Amino acid sequence: MGELFRSVPMTMIRLLIPNEAVHETVHEIGNLGKINFKDLNSTLSAFQRPFTAEVRRLDEIEKKLNFFRAHLDEIKVKDIPKDRWLTKEREKEILLEDLEAIEGIFEDTENNLKELLKNEDELKVQQLGLFEQILLIEKVNDFLLNNDETLEIEFPKEHKMKKVDSISVPLLEMDKSSSDEMKTKTGLQYVCGTILRERVPILERILWRTTRGNMFLRTAEIETKIKEFQTNKFVTKTAFLIFYQGESIGDKIRRVCTSMGSNLYNIPENQNERNRTIENLRDQLQDLKDVIVKSKNHKVESLIVLRVNFPIWYERIHKEKAIYSTMNLFRYDQAKKCLIAEAWIPEDTVADVRHCLAKSTETSGAMIPTILDIIENPPKSSIPPTHFPVTNFQKGFQAIIDSYGIANYREVNPTPFTIITFPFLFGVMFGDFGHGILLTIFAIWVLMNSKKLGIKAQTDEIIKILYDGRYIIFMMGLFSVYCGFIYNEIFAVPMNWFGTCWEPRNNSTVLDLKTKTCTYPVGVDPSWAGTTTELLYADSLKMKLSVLLGISQMLLGCVLSLLNHIHFKKWLNIWFEFIPQMLLLLSFFGYMCFLIIYKWVVNWSDREGQTGGIHLITTLINMFLKPMGMKSDQIMFKNQNAIQLILILIFVLTIPLMLIPKPFILRHRAKKRRKEMGYNQLNEISSSDNDENDKNKNKKQDHDHEEEFQFSEVMIHQLIHTIEFVLGSISNTASYLRLWALSLAHSQLSKVFWEMIFLTTAKMEKIGFISIFIGFCVWAVLSVIVLLVMECLSAFLHALRLHWVEFNSKFYVADGSIKFEPFSFKEIKQEAKNYRS
């Protein structure tokens, strides 16, 4: 917990790495995972860095890896026999294989997989085409042979048929002449195919305008839905048959049909040939299905090989890319023929780093070892990174603080306190025993399935939020149960845990205390539920609790600021910031908390002239308006007027104490430091023969030191800081009243849902069980959606705001520090491990 309270002490190091050992050294450092490298090539573009070519090469290999990953979902891990997985020895061999050999394997595997996918797509397209053609021929037979369907055809005079009564004839008179004879006699030709059902009206209009009516179109919907290869969806298609005369019109019709996305097929004109074609197509379709099955089996076998190799390939390629990307941060020294790296490491890991460097030198076989230099006095521009070692339980709470801002180096971290205060304030707003139990059960389910959710969290943002905040949800559920127990509410129904201290007066609705000394053991007495004063009582209790909790948390923030001042030895801030701030808070807001508690603990019924009817708001207003003129019936304790006058004076005096002394003391110190530096520079100049450039340099340094302190800027900053704290103390205290408002809203919504929905339906005697069941379902759905989801999210956001604004602003600076991000293979190894499971 000590390392979580303040960030880990850091040490700056410089590494001189020989060229022949740099790859192995960075690899071992990645396995160690405790070194945060600085970018020594920040002035260079990405293309000017020394290892850009290697990184780009690995980017191309990674594209192939991503192509493989896109097809791995077809093979489940549980479907692969255990003996097919790689052994530990084989995995080590792949990790040590030459990168060119792996690149060659990737090239062959990619070509093979693309060829398999291409063949599979072609076979599927061919299969769909055969199936569609069979359905089309069946519809064409219906067009041409159905005697009920007739067609008015205007034949040439020399080939005109006998006229019938209705001037109608069948499409083809098969008993009189063959199709070939008909085509020869009439000069009619036809085009047939399929088109999406919704495009038929458009096709009909365009064909009519294009051919100027010189065509005849017949359509019929295909009952069987056909699967489209491009969209992989089943669609409804329509078969069409178009009669026309002339090759030019036929070309136009074909072009129009093709542009509309139609599939055209050549179908025999003779009925017997069409029947034989259907049989041949069905045989081809069956053969094609067998080929597709064999092709799929071959693809599955290839994907299994790819699946068992993918995790180790993923680890190897991403490690190599991380290594070369890190090497791009190093600066190459031409004179020493080595790479220079600068980094931050935790103080207690120096020995581990030395051991890691020695191991890498031995592994690489380099003649010159890597040199590690500890930089005792790093430049002020190099800000040490902030590092808090956190467990899985603490990680979510630390993420909440990091979202506000990364803590400055060695600054007090709010996380240890947030672990308790955040879910507690949430519980104050969400307090209900029943809802808290449901939230806790949900959190336990998430914790039990955290391994599966962790894998899904890599691709799903919502699941990632749920996974990262699983312990936060668990703690919020527990504190909701606790606060619900204190409020004595379970789904807005009071529970009689410990009996009651009230009893009815003479069997009436008026309640009296059983004894004057009777006190309910824990929480709220259940007898308050259903009374006319229930809302007033809950309103007063929760409002005052909100004020007490808010001021307590703000005072805690001020105490933590004292710890920061002591650690950084800012004694001036202690005298003219911390002490005045504490006096200001305690003189008014602390006094208000005292009055609240005092009014609770005193038995006002024993006092003459006072029955507990003193209003605290009126007392606090009169404290400033009538400091010495409060009436006797408003006095709560002896010497109240004198004490209040002293508190007012303290409150007023703290404001100039925060505003005036600090800027003037800083100006005095700046003048004194400037004089001392001036004397030192004069002595240096008189004792040495400096050229003109050195004199100009000294003058420039003097000018820089003069600009170090600007009294006007410091004064304005202090003025803003003072106004912000004084006004913020009032607004922040009012802001904590959201605890009261949300708690009351949650309680009243629960009560409305229970009484107006469930109890109302339960009282419907005519419907009976059905009404109870329907009422329960409606009540459960609304409780989950409104109370467990929306109210939970609302309480979470309000608790977040109270910590970010009201609590953190009292001590947490977080003004530009950087997070400790060591070079590590941990995440790469974890992701590779996830692909194995």
Automatic annotation (TrEMBL):
Composition bias, Basic and acidic residues: 693-703
Pfam families noted in UniProt: V_ATPase_I
An annotated GO BP: vacuolar acidification
Region span, Disordered: 684-703
InterPro entries in the record: V-ATPase_116kDa_su, V-type_ATPase_116kDa_su_euka
Keyword Nucleotide-binding included in the entry's annotation: no
Keywords from the UniProt entry: Coiled coil, Hydrogen ion transport, Ion transport, Membrane, Transmembrane, Transmembrane helix, Transport
GO cellular component: vacuolar proton-transporting V-type ATPase, V0 domain
Main location: membrane
Membrane spanning stretches: 424-448, 469-487, 545-563, 575-598, 642-665, 767-790
Chain coiled-coil ranges: 58-126, 271-298
Locations listed in the record: Membrane
Topology of the protein relative to the lipid bilayer: Multi-pass membrane protein
Molecular-function annotations in GO: ATPase binding; proton-transporting ATPase activity, rotational mechanism
Role description: Essential component of the vacuolar proton pump (V-ATPase), a multimeric enzyme that catalyzes the translocation of protons across the membranes. Required for assembly and activity of the V-ATPase.
UniProt similarity note: Belongs to the V-ATPase 116 kDa subunit family.
Protein's UniProt name: V-type proton ATPase subunit a
Protein source organism: Anaeramoeba flamelloides
